[in-house]
Amino acid sequence: MIFVVQNVERCVVTMASGEAVSEIEDGFVVYVGLEVKDVSESEENNINKAAEFIMEKTGKKNVMLLSQFTLMAKFKRHKKPSFHSAAGKEISNPFFYGLKKRLNEFKKTESGVFREHLKIRCISTSLKTAAYNL
User: What is this enzyme's catalytic activity, as reactions (predicted)?
Assistant: First the structure.
């Protein structure tokens, strides 16, 4: 699992058509990438592990959870990126929404729409952006 956590003043997510999806203020955007190998344990264990990690990094602030398979890109010798290690929708979809549900038990958690083309507008409050392998 790869997470990119970015501190934001505001984040607004809309569909490509312009239809509003969700927004947060004063919180963190968390991009989530899941690999096929991440399903070696039970889904529930992985969700708990990811939720604990996100809670630790974001504290009590709001969270915008966004699925991002491109975090799994592998590059070899200037060729096009390969996404073969990214988990497919049958694994990623239940994980993503299970993680959102778990986080919502503790704090306001919004999200984008899984496997949809979204427009994401963020106002960063600082250069606090970090990537984590879990």
Answer: a D-aminoacyl-tRNA + H2O = a tRNA + a D-alpha-amino acid + H(+); glycyl-tRNA(Ala) + H2O = tRNA(Ala) + glycine + H(+)
Please give the backbone phi and psi of residue 58, each rounded to the nearest 5 degrees, phi first: -110, -10
Cα 10 to Cα 16, 51, 94, 118, distances in angstroms: 19, 22, 27, 16
The DSSP annotation for 90-110 comes to HHHHHHHHHHHHHHHTTS-EE
What lies within 8 Å, CB to CB, of 22 at 6+ separation is: 12, 13, 64, 110, 111, 112
Task: Tell me how many domains the chain contains.
Answer: 1
Pairing of strands 109-111, 20-33: unpaired
Provide the 10 A C-beta neighbour count for residue 85: 15
Q: Which pair of tokens denotes residue 65?
A: 């959870």
Q: What is the pLDDT of residues 104-117, one digit of tens each?
A: 999 999 999 887 88
Q: Which residues of 61-80 are buried (b: 16+ CB within 10 A; e: fewer)?
A: ebbbbbbbbebbeeeeeeee
User: With a threshold of 0.85, does the pTM exceed it?
Assistant: yes
The end-to-end CA distance of the chain, in Å, is: 5
